[in-house]
Amino acid sequence: MPAPSVNYIPQKPGVYLMKDKNGKIIYVGKAKSLKDRVRSYFTTPYSPKERALKSKIESVDYIVTNSEIEALVLEANLIKLHLPYYNIRLKDDKKYPYIKVTTQEAFPRVFPTRDLRNRSAIYFGPYTNARTMKRALRSATNIFPIRICKGKLPSRACLAYHIGKCPAPCENKISKEEYGDIIQELIAFLSGRSKEVEKKLKAKMQELSEKLKFEDAAKVRDQLKSVQFIARKQRVVFNRPISLDTFGLQRKRNTACIVLVLVREGRILGTEHYILHIQSKASDGEIMRAFLLQYYKNAFYIPREIVIRKVDEKETIEKWFARPDTKQVGKRKILVPKRGEKFGLIKFAEQNALVWLETEQEEKIPKVLDELKKYLKLPKLPSRIEAFDISNIGGKYAVGSCVSFLNGRAQKSGYRRFKIQTVDEIDDVGMMREILSRRASADEHSKHKKFPDLVLVDGGIGQTRAARESMPSEIPVFGLAKRFEELHTPDGKIISLPKSSIALRLLQRIRNEAHRFAISYHRKLRDKPKSLLNEIPGIGKQRRELLLKHFSSFKELKQASISEIEDVPGIGKTRAKEIYNFLRLI
């Protein structure tokens, strides 16, 4: 296809947005010179990724910024907003939890969050493991007691004060300055600066002892011991108090895994792993550059050294680290060692990344299926689960749904919907029997049989037996009733899974999806104008056609007054009033 003209694009720093023939943004990039960078996509030589991208570009938009650093920030924001196909991005990054410190409040709180809109607060993360995040938060709040109540201060102290979990600023039992000191110690602790925290606590304990406040000094001593205990459990990798972030990268086809090793004061504070969606032709340096932008975009604390094997635009990213909103003191450097201790740390991160990448591939068969197989005593792992549900109003507009889940994830290509054909009355069991029979018949006449490993129906023993009669005998069938969330077997037994079971949660999610899919189809049929007009007493086919012909749309008919409806030939005043009243009810 001919290259779009770039003559209109200025030679200034900014962000460019490449769109396909449908106007969808497929790539977001930043440039020091927008015109030169965009032109490079349509001249040779270009990289394999650019070659693949070039064939899809229909138009290019751009946003001018004041500097390349501003462009870098805007690029990261636009990638998260639009999730362009050809950009490298974190998978499910909206799900990652953070620890939030509400420093904008007079008496700040600390709690987990996934909402990063408040730019006045301080955030620690992202954490890929919610348990790790909760453990860090629990350790911090156990050592440094702060208020846990939501919103404004209450009028009096709650139970948290009486068990030593809160200093009760609501009853003025602690000054704003003293509370602020605790918050700063907590922030330093979450940042991994345990030596700094220990030093402050020792000084504070000494000061309280000299003032003969031995009870308060004992509390500080206990805090100090807790901090020292946690620090001792961390693996020492350097014999000097150095703090750095080390990243290791592994990749396979369109997926990459990056492991972060957090080193604070010479000790490994912890590791986090991140799964990224990539283009197979993207270079390692490009992947790492995109990741660093996304990871450090909301960071409160950035260590002085970032240790990495390879990254594109190293100097630009170092300048970006020093931008005013990060409030970092001193220069941040990206190191690319070739040997020594830091290079060994990179290899350690890469080894862990390889393990996580292999685990990601294996998670195509998640552990929840093992649990499901065990609880239900299934002959094999239920990789493919299909769920069925019925939706109708008094037997009218009756429909059925079938949703398919493969390895615990929705497989939309396996979704089916059915109009009930053989049942004209209120008979959910009969309707369930019909749709299961039609589902089984479809597979029997198909060249590629895809019978499920497990069938789940929404209902009790009646629906379950109807499903059993309709499906091949080798396929396990269960019913999941909403009332008690219990599983019914065709022979009348009831299986109760633990409420905390991930297997039960999966079955509930599948059942709810079948219900959603059924009711959406039912509403679609019910809400068709002709279907709704069928419900009005005394309105036959001829009058229905006259109404729809007189009014340009169903919406216009619904908004019409009684006198306007009466103007339609063949519709008298009485019937017009009936139609008007009926339309007010829907």
Lay out the secondary structure.
Blueprint: E1 14-19, E2 25-31, H1 34-40, H2 48-54, E3 59-64, H3 68-82, E4 89-90, E5 98-101, E6 110-113, E7 122-124, H4 130-143, H5 159-162, H6 176-190, H7 194-210, H8 214-233, E8 244-252, E9 255-264, E10 267-277, H9 284-296, E11 305-307, H10 314-321, E12 333-335, H11 341-362, H12 367-376, E13 384-393, E14 396-406, E15 409-410, E16 416-419, H13 428-444, E17 454-458, H14 461-470, E18 477-481, E19 486-488, E20 494-495, H15 502-526, H16 529-534, H17 541-550, H18 554-559, H19 562-566, H20 573-584
Parallel strand pairs: 8-11, 11-12, 13-17, 17-18
Antiparallel strand pairs: 1-2, 1-3, 4-10, 5-6, 5-7, 8-9, 9-10, 13-14, 14-15, 14-16, 18-19, 19-20
Give the CATH level 1 class of the domain at 369-526. Alpha Beta
Share of residues in helices? 40-55%
- 3D shape: globular
CATH topology of the domain at 369-526: Nucleotidyltransferase, domain 5
Number of strands: 20
Proportion of strand residues: 15-25%
| Helix count, DSSP H or I runs of 4 or more residues | 20
Q: Biggest sheet, in brief?
A: 8 strands, mixed
CATH architecture grouping of the domain at 369-526:
2-Layer Sandwich
Low-confidence stretches: none
- What is the CATH H-level superfamily of the domain at 369-526? UvrC, RNAse H endonuclease domain
Q: Over the alpha carbons, how many angstroms does the gyration radius reach? A: 32 Å
**What is the SS-derived class?**
alpha+beta
- pLDDT averaged over residues: 81
End-to-end C-alpha gap: 51 Å
